[in-house]
Amino acid sequence: MPLPHPFIDGHLDLALNGLALRRQITGPLEAIRAAEADNLGPFDTATVTLPDLRAGGAVMVVSSLLARCRPWRVKSGQIGVAAGDFPDQDGAYAAAAAQLAYYESLERRGEIRLVRSADELPAADAMLAPDEPLPLLAIFEGADPVRDPDDLHRWHRMGIRSLMLAHFGRSVYAHGTPAEPDDAHPNDVDGPLTDAGRRLLPEIEALRMPLDLTHLSDTALYEALDSFGGVVYASHCACRTLNPDWQRNLPDDVIQAISQRGGVIGLPLHSPFLVKGYQRDTPREACNLDHVVDHLDRLCEVSGSDAHVALGTDMDGGYGLEYTPTGVDRSADMPRLAERMSERGWSEDAIGRVFAGNWHRFWSANLPA
Ligand SMILES: [Zn+2]
Description:
Helix content is 35%, strand content 11%. With 369 residues, it is α/β, with parallel strands linked by helices. The protein has a single domain, classed as Metal-dependent hydrolases (TIM Barrel, Alpha-Beta Barrel), CATH 3.20.20.140. Helix 1 (14-20) crosses helix 4 (89-108) and helix 10 crosses helix 11. It starts with 6 loop residues before the first strand and ends with a helix. The site of zinc ion (ZN) has 5 residues, from loops. Zinc ion binds next to loops.
C-alpha cells in the first residue's frame, strides 16, 4: 500500500451506520463484515470504520444527520430505527437528535471530536497523531429535521454548520432527485423548492451556513442557485456529461456556477454514478479507479482548475463494497486512488488539494471564526 495522503472525506453517513445498521464503527472492519455475513443484502458489504478512515489518511470527515419526513414511504408498525423515513417532522427531528447524540457519545470517548468553528479544523498537510480524535463536522443530509426557521437557529447552536434541503425524493423543503433513474413514485420526481424551502433560504443565508446543493432535483437546484445569495457547494456529486443516467450527477453549467461562487464539489465513489449503464447486476469490475480519475479530470476541466474539486466518498451511504470502484475495498485503500492519480499525471500538490486542501480552504472560509 502506498503511503497515505492527508484526506478529508467530504461526505459520510457514520451515524446512520451506527444507529440504523447498528454497526460498531469504532472497531475493525473485519468484525462488521463477519457479523453481517448472513444478515445483510448482497450489495451492502461494509467499507468504512473509524480505524479504517485513519489508516487511509483521514484527517477529518463531514458526516450526516439523515432522517426524512416521507409519510408515503412509511410502513407504520415496523420496528423503528433512528434513521430513515418518518410520517412527520417530529420523528425526523428526534431521529436527527439521536444521531447528533451518537456523535457526541463518540466524542465523549475520544473517538472523534466535533468541529464547529474554523479554529477547530485540523491541518490539511499533516497526519493525525495516533491518539488524536478524528475531527468530524456534522451536517444535515435533507433538512426535514428542521421543523421551522427558528429550529435552524437551534440546530446551529448545537453545532450543525451546513445542510442539504432534500435527500432522495421530495422533502418538506424541496424536490430531491428520484432514488432510481426511473423511479415513478409521484412524490419522488423533479420539481421546485416548496414554499417552506423558499422561506428557509434567507435564514440559512443569515446564519452564513453554506448550502449543499447535492440531491436537489434539477428544477429545485436551479431555483436555489438563483435565489440563494450565500455560499453553495456540492458534497457528493459526479459529472452528468460522463454519466447522464442520474439527475444526481451535476451538469457542466452547475459545476461552473458552484466553482465560480467559490464552492467545492466532492466526488462520490459510487459506481452507479460513475459509469453509464451501471445496474444492479453489473459486475463490480465495470467500475475502477480510472473512472474515478475520469470524473476528477472532468470536474477540473469544466471548473477551470483543480481548486474546486475534492472527494465526498459516501462509501457508507446505503451501499457497500459491491457498488464501490475496484481498487478501493475500504477507506484504508484511499492511497490507491492517489497512486492512480499520480500515474495519470496528477502532481503531488494537486493530489493534496483534491484529497484535503480544497475542503480545508472551503471550511476555513465558511465556518464561524
Ligand atoms: Zn447522499
